[in-house]
Amino acid sequence: MDCTVEESEIRRLVEPIAGIRGLHFRLNQRQLRIDGSDTAVIAALAVIRQAGFSPEPLTAAPGSMESGGAGHEHAHSTGYARFAAALVFALLAESLSYFAPETTAWKAAGMALAAAAIWLAGLETYSKGLTALRHGKLNINALMSVAVTGAFIIGQWPEAAMVMALYAIAELIEARAVDRARNAIKGLVDLAPDEAEIQQADGSWRRVKAAEVALHAIARVRPGERVAFDGVVTKGHSTINQAPVTGESIPVDKEPGSQVFAGTINENGELEFRVSAAAANSTLARIIHAVEEAQGTRAPTQRFVDRFAAVYTPAIFAMALAVAVLPPLLLDWEWLSAIYKALVLLVIACPCALVISTPVSVVSGLAAAARRGILIKGGTYLENARLLKAVALDKTGTLTEGKPVLVASQAWGQADEAQVGRWAKSLAARSDHPVSRSIAAGIAGLAVDVENFTALLGRGVQASVDGRAMVLGNHRLIRERNQSDAQLEAELMAHEAQGRTVTLLADAGGVLGLFAVADTIKPSSVAAVAQLKRLGVTPVMLTGDNSATAQAVAREAGIDDARGGLLPQDKLAAIQEMRARYGPTAMTGDGINDAPALAQADIGFAMGGAGTDTAVEAADIVIMNDNLGRIAETIVLSRRTHAILWQNICLALAIKAVFFVLAIFGGATMWMAVFADMGASLLVVANGLRLLRRA
Fold it and tell me: What pTM did the predictor assign?
């Protein structure tokens, strides 16, 4: 099962069977899952065999990419030997037709050699071709079967043998080239090791098969080894190369509490981690599954080509029949000459190059994206991303780090700056509020003990430090204590205009210090926004934060249109307005809070998909490494893929058009026809594989 034509043939035969609930094709793996009753499945296998195919049960779990691989390699190796023998026989038959005496014995020997070559090279082609003809279907195998048989009958048996041998060899070469695109993502399977070192109940360590490891087990990974599971570090410090999964080029530091992902590489220190997902459900496994499913979907151009080919092939067959019959009747052509030209037309007309051009390009594009840490859920999204005119960007976690950090601090009045910092750290360290944690982490030095600690709901905390009653709280708390003045208000307004949250330290005598916390913009965001603008895509910020914060972050990122204070339904309305104003619009968010807007947008991008189940499931495209620049890369890749798709279509049709003219006017032979057809197929495959070169 090599192409969509054969998929359609199987679908047409199997779907009408009573009890069949669904057919799920994975052409890239040559797999078909049949959902139905036992009786229906048995009947389905029977009609598939009658159609000339040989269904075999999977020997590994579906989606593992392992089943069938060895068989394909064996088929390739045995095919080369058989087809090489066919080519030798065809050459001998061709030699006899040129050099042997014109006697019955030599002619019979030549015909026998030609028949042997056709049998060796064309057994599968004839089987599928005759089945297609019996069912009234004209596919590539039917065209070749008719053309070769016709050539043999009219006495062109050396040429018929050579054409079938060359066709079979070219088909095999093409299959190997197509496999390169189909298996471009297969390397991901080998990233996660089959075994892992697991801690036993008595505290000892033993290597265990990854598939047998239970959730929450403690695993150990040594320097230079690959991580076998998703998990959370419990012991050790190291750096991990996450490029195979997230596309990040710089290794990431890991410490207790950090997440690790299956398939990544531990670079220096030894780590122990608690398994958070089984091997079959790791981030890596979900990526592989999603890419397999995406490869099974059809892009718009591919659907167009399939519909075109369904009309094109019968039309060409009718044209060839007309060339064989009408010129001898109307123009006094010789019958054998007209029939030969018609057979040449059949060989040239094979739609293989046209049909194979789109899936190879789409699969190559999906694989190239996955290698960059961009998980595209289908060929439709890969091709349609080029149409985007606007991208809505969530602020927190998309443009910004999503983690508040201390960006400014100052003593107020006559207070000592170092002392103020020590007091503030001591109070902040006792609170679990994100702002307090960022203040405690941002101030150097050690905290001191506090007494009578109390949380002030919605305002801050209070406690005694060094015998003095102090508060660490927000602007509202200081106003309630009547400790604000015009100078302080001006300072607070200046910070808030920059999108900062200000926390103040005060005692009974007044304010002692100010601490400004902000969600800092990612280093990559400015460049990513600029790149979107260069591509002609308008970036718009949509956030639930207040307008002042939104405007401050937008200015820093280079975004001209920023909309703050939005609820989920407001973001949904904003997407609708952007689509009406700009055209096709994408939404970028975390895949959870922004779910309505992600669903409403033409394409939904989820950021930071590694470890985020909801994002991987909900979005159309998942950026695994949280890098906003990947959106622009996706658009560029989409444009390249679309260009190559149409280059392939035009190339295939142009080559066929040239040889049509040559065939009708006597300038093309069956040799030239088979080279033209398979040459076009190999050219479009090679052109599609160009997408992998920059991955």
Answer: 0.68
Domain boundary among 521, 548, 572: 521
Average pLDDT, the chain: 81
One-character DSSP codes across 374-399: EEE--HHHHHHGGG--EEEEEIIIII
Gap between the Cα atoms of 644 and 661, Å rounded: 26
Please write the tens of the pLDDT for every residue from 148-189. Answer: 888 888 878 887 888 788 778 767 766 676 566 555 555 555
Catalytic annotation present for 394 = yes
List, for the chain, all residue ranges whose pLDDT scores fall below the cut of 70: 2-5, 27-29, 59-79, 139, 170, 173-175, 177-191, 243-250, 286-303, 305-306, 309-310, 350-355, 590-593, 595, 609-618, 666, 671, 694-695
Element (H, E) at 43: helix 38-50
Are 211 and 247 in contact, with CB atoms under 8 Å apart?
Answer: no
How deeply is 584 buried, as exposed, middle or buried, from its count of CB atoms within 10 A (0-12, 13-18, 19+)?
Answer: middle
pLDDT tens column, 332-373? 888 888 888 888 877 777 666 666 777 778 878 888 888 788
Cα separation of 552 and 556, whole Å?
Answer: 6
Q: Within 13 Å, how many C-alpha atoms sit on residue 15's CB side? A: 9
- CA dist 492 and 501 (Å) reads 9
Residue 514, domain member (yes or no): yes
Contact of 439 with 425, CB cutoff 8 Å: yes
d(CA 330, CA 525): 72
- Per the domain annotation, does 661 fall within a domain? no
Give the count of domains, the chain: 3
State the catalytic residue, choosing from 2, 179, 230, 394: 394
CA distances from 556 to 33, 244, 391, 551, 589 (A): 51, 31, 17, 9, 19
Range of the domain at 216: 193-281
Among candidate residues 246, 382, 253, the one with its CA nearest the CA of residue 688: 382
User: How much of the chain is helix, strand and coil, in % rounded to 5?
Assistant: 55, 20, 25
The residue among 218, 215, 212, 211 whose CA lies nearest residue 192 is: 211
Domain stop point among 521, 546, 569:
521
**CA gap 625, 396 in Å, rounded:** 15
